[in-house]
Amino acid sequence: MEAQSVDIIDIHSFGNMNDVVLSHLFWDAQLNFDSRTIEASAAWTIDNKNGADKLILDTENLTIKNVTLDKGHKTTFELMEADPVLGRALHIQIYPDTKNVVIEYETSPEASALQWLNPQQTAGKVHPFLLSQSQAIMARSWIPCMDGPGVRFTYDAKVTLDKDLMAVMSASNPTKKNDEGVYNFSMKQAIPSYLMAIAAGDIAFQGIGKNSGVYAEPSLVEAAAAEFEDIPQMITDAESLYGPYTWDRYDVIVLPPSFPFGGMENPRLTFATPTIIAGDKSLVALVAHELAHSWSGNLVTNSNWEDFWLNEGFTVYFEQRIMELLRGREYSEMLASLSYQGLLGEIAAITEDGRPGDTRLKVNLDGRHPDDTFSGIPYDKGYLFLRNVEEHVGRERFDGFLKTYFNTYAFKSMTTELFEELLEEHLIQGDEELAEKINLKGWIHTAGLPESHPIPVSSTFTELETLSDSFISSGDVSIIKDASEKWSSQEWQYFLTNLPDDLNLNLMSALDAEFNFTNSGNSEIAADWYELAIKRNYEEAFPAIEEFLIRVGRRKFLTPIYSEFAKTPGGLARAIQIYEKARPNYHSVSYNTIDKVLGLVE
Ligand code: BES
Ligand code: ZN
Predict the structure, then answer these.
(1) Which partner from 146, 420, 458, 591 sits 20 to 30 angstroms from 258, CA to CA?
(2) Residue 383 pLDDT
(3) What atom in ligand 1 is closest to the CA of residue 589?
(4) Which residue puts its alpha carbon closest to atom 6 of ligand 1?
(5) What residues contact 527, with CB distance under 8 A and at least 6 apart?
(6) Which residues are within 8 A (CB) of 94 and not within 5 positions of it... i.e. 6 or more apart?
(7) pLDDT band at 602 (very low <50, low <70, confident <90, very high)
(8) What's the rounded Cα separation, in Å, for the pair 317 and 94?
């Protein structure tokens, strides 16, 4: 395979990336927790390869104070009119030989990427906390940059903050606080802006093996290290599949519960929700997922957000391969079954919502924010498509192809079209029968699911169904009592999500009395139960649901719970009451979604 480069067309960035190359950023920043702002300078090393007279960067809600070129030469700049989706383009006058552009600026307390937590939102309750989430197009709210996945740069940073806090970034990181409150960072491999990340607070570190470890608030770090003890094995397994891990260290930071995602693949430092710490390692497939992004996404990167399935579909496929090596085929088939079940539900829901086009792998984002099409489709349909290819060409050949693919396209952009070409050239090779089975068009450019598709089968789930059926028909909890003592989190999820919606309230109470789902320490089980509780109006669970919604800001849990409430007028009223208390604890990613779910905005 020989690397081909693709033209970068990105409707979500104003950046003039085809004229000016950004190669390196030096970011010098002061974090101000009192005003919830960052005062910073971004010094860009550029190559004005076409002699452009302007550098155009993306910004959102930034106050630009001053811009200079090279050795402090003044220049002119203009912040253009704000676009509701894209923010404001920053036009800076440059010259054919300009090498350096330094922008002094300040972020807004409302910066969409940043969440400033008060001490009450942390485990320690004493110190404030800052976390960022840049993907997809929010890096521009804290760094003026060409904010599209097709632009890559290296960076160094110097961050100054309160002396009793520590900062970490998607870069080489400190492991201890220092007396100065100044930290230096370096990311020597070129990354796109959506992987720029920072967290700061009362943070401690504990190693897990030689090249990995975990950051968390001091009271959580030990439990986190125990939960994630399989990380070194995951890295070994991942490398055995698709080649060396190229980012040096792999650490995870466990953030406060308001972090809006389960995990985010910030290079060298995965950002993770504490809701995956179940105490029994049952939810660590999420770490395998973020680790897998070190290849699919962080090395080979979707060229723009319409190709997002290339990042996530490959990563789910890779995640399941890691979990198969770590826990066995039956375990990964349970994950695949849950993913398949979720996929059928999502396709139905999105189609019913009148957006069947959003169930294609390659989506059309014209005039839309990338988050508008966020769903399980790029993940679970992308996974199933790749599994379909694997099943038709054979695992060995497919693995060989993927390994070469990650190696050849490392630190490069990938488009859906180029990927299709590579499949044709290296795997299909003119074999018409195979082409029909792989069915690129049906999977990638057609709504829904091709009629012929792999169906994951888990014998564990099949057995569980028999038990569950007799429980439902008899109403006798003792039928599942003994067997369920050995159930994994995945089995519980399968059990709960396949209970009939009209399960009577006596059975709900009986289940809860036996298994205490309402107070489950496993967030996946609790969230599935809460959905059912709202559907069945099982009021006993409502105080716990309220507490959960106020404490946890992970959108994947919030959306189904609030949506379920919103289905009835009484439920909606209750949800709005809870939301008034909960909303201030959420990151913009979550409150922007829930505002819509509750009909508070268009
Ligand atoms: N990169 C995503 C999170 C993301 C996607 C953030 C799009 C912003 C825009 C991350 O890798 C992810 O997929 N996280 C999942 C977990 C995973 C196991 C499916 C999540 O947060 O739930
Ligand atoms: Zn992902």
Answers:
(1) 146
(2) 98
(3) 8
(4) 135
(5) 548, 557, 560, 561
(6) 20, 46, 48, 52, 53, 54, 55, 69, 75, 101
(7) confident
(8) 45
H/E segment holding residue 201: strand 198-201
300-302 and 182-191: which strand pairing? Answer: unpaired
What's the pLDDT at 380?
Answer: 98
pLDDT score at 596: 98
Q: Give pLDDT tens digits for 219-256.
A: 999 999 999 999 999 999 999 999 999 999 999 999 99
Which residues are CB-neighbours of 25 under 8 A, at least 6 positions away? 42, 43, 44, 45, 143, 145, 153, 154, 155, 156, 157
Question: Under DSSP, is residue 198 helix (H, G, I), strand (E, B) or coil?
Answer: strand
Ligand 2 center to residue 293 CA distance, Å?
7
Q: Which atom of ligand 1 is nearest to the CA of 312?
A: 13
Q: Look up residue 256 and give its DSSP letter.
A: P
pLDDT at 586 over 90: yes
Which atom in ligand 1 lies closest to the alpha carbon of residue 261?
Answer: 21
- Mean per-residue pLDDT, 181-197: 98
Of 317, 379, 562, 579, the catalytic one is: 379
Q: Which of 141, 271, 312 to mutate to test the pocket of ligand 1 (most atoms within 8 A of CB)?
A: 312
- Ligand 1 proximal residues by C-beta, below 6 Å: 135-136, 261-265, 286, 289-290, 293, 312, 379, 556
How far does residue 307's CA lie from ligand 1's centre (Å)?
15
Count CA within 13 A, CB hemisphere, residue 315: 30
Q: How many helices (H) and strands (E) in the chain?
A: 19, 21
pLDDT band per the 50, 70, 90 thresholds, residue 96: very high
Calculate the average pLDDT of the chain: 98
Rounded to the nearest whole angstrom, what is the distance from the C-alpha of residue 311 to the centroid of ligand 1? Answer: 10
Atom of ligand 1 nearest to the CA of 262: 21
Q: Which of 593, 598, 587 is nearest to 564 (CA)?
A: 598
pTM above 0.90, yes or no: yes
Ligand 1 atom with the smallest distance to the CA of 316 is 19
Ligand 1 geometric centre to CA of 289 (Å): 9
CA distance 309 to 380: 9
Q: How far is the CA of 259 from the centre of ligand 1 (A)?
A: 12
290 in catalytic set: yes
Give yes or no for residue 53 having a pLDDT over 90. yes
Residue owning the nearest CA to atom 11 of ligand 1:
264
Does residue 227 have an active-site annotation? no
Q: Whose CA is nearest to atom 18 of ligand 1?
A: 286
User: Please, are residues 216 and 254 in contact by the beta-carbon 8 Å criterion?
Assistant: yes
CA distance 544 to 261: 21
Q: Please identify which of the residues 290, 319, 346, 524 carries the catalytic annotation.
A: 290
Q: Ligand 2 centre from 517 Cα, in Å?
A: 28
Which pLDDT does position 502 carry in this prediction? 86
The pLDDT of residue 188 is 98
- How many CB atoms neighbour CB 462 within 10 A? 10
pLDDT at 501 over 90: no
Element (H, E) at 92: strand 88-93
CA distance 270 to 224: 13
- Whether the predicted pLDDT of 40 surpasses 90: yes
